[in-house]
Amino acid sequence: MDISTRAALTFGLTASGLVAGTNTAMSIFAVPPMLLAPKQVMVQQWRKLFNLGLVWVPPTAVLASASLGYVAYASRSASKRDFGDVGGDASRWKGIAFAAAGILSIVPYTLMFMKPTNDKLIAESNGAGHLAEREVKALIEWWSRLNLVRGVIGATGTAMGIWSAVGLR
């Protein structure tokens, strides 16, 4: 594996791990204390957390996926050239491709499963919602569970990428 492919692999795995870790940490460490605050503070804290994540998680996930996609492509080409399509090292590129798809899949997951909750909480944080405190708390708890799943999706892709990378040359 040449230096540019190794650099892309290192960046892709590191960035995907950071994305997975960020999502997981938001749910495990940031949300529980947030739920102790009064409604207006709680929803503003959630909005700040959401905005921070929005600024860097999606672009980082896309860059990680692109890097890992490049590595999968380069590794597939090298494995066909060096080993033929006979398995063993020749099939390691598939795990890297899985990692690329895994980290990128958090984007459609967010749009399909989290957007309705996000929209309600954003409306509430803008003062346009009229939810009771218990409803806001329940929405943030639900968001936290969905976000934790998003972190696990990213962590699974990252783990598969690391496992596959160990076998790449």
How would you explain this protein's 3D organization?
- The protein has 169 residues and is an all-alpha fold.
- The protein has one domain.
- It is built from five helices and no strands.
- The chain has helices at residues 3-34, 39-83, 92-104, 106-125, 133-166.
- Helix 1 packs antiparallel against helix 5, helix 2 (39-83) packs parallel to helix 5 and helix 3 (92-104) packs antiparallel against helix 5.
- The longest helix is centred in the middle third of the chain and has 45 residues, at 39-83.
- The protein is elongated.
Number of domains: 1
Structural category is mainly alpha
- Beta content comes to under 5%
Helix-strand pattern, N to C?
HHHHH
Helix content range of the residues, please?
A: over 70%
What is the helix tally?
5
Distance between the termini: 5 Å
On the 0 to 100 scale, the average pLDDT is 91
Note the quaternary state here: single chain
Major sheet characteristics: none
- Rounded radius of gyration (Å): 19 Å
Taking pLDDT < 50 over at least 5 consecutive residues as the criterion, the unreliable ranges are: 83-88
Overall body shape: elongated
For the secondary structure, the number of strands is: 0
InterPro entries: Anthrone_oxy (IPR013901)
Subcellular location: Membrane
Pfam families: Anthrone_oxy
Protein name: DUF1772-domain-containing protein
Topology:
Blueprint: H1 3-34, H2 39-83, H3 92-104, H4 106-125, H5 133-166
Helix pairs in contact: 1-2, 1-5, 2-3, 2-4, 2-5, 3-5, 4-5
Membrane topology: Multi-pass membrane protein
Family: Belongs to the anthrone oxygenase family.
Transmembrane segments: 54-74, 95-114, 148-168
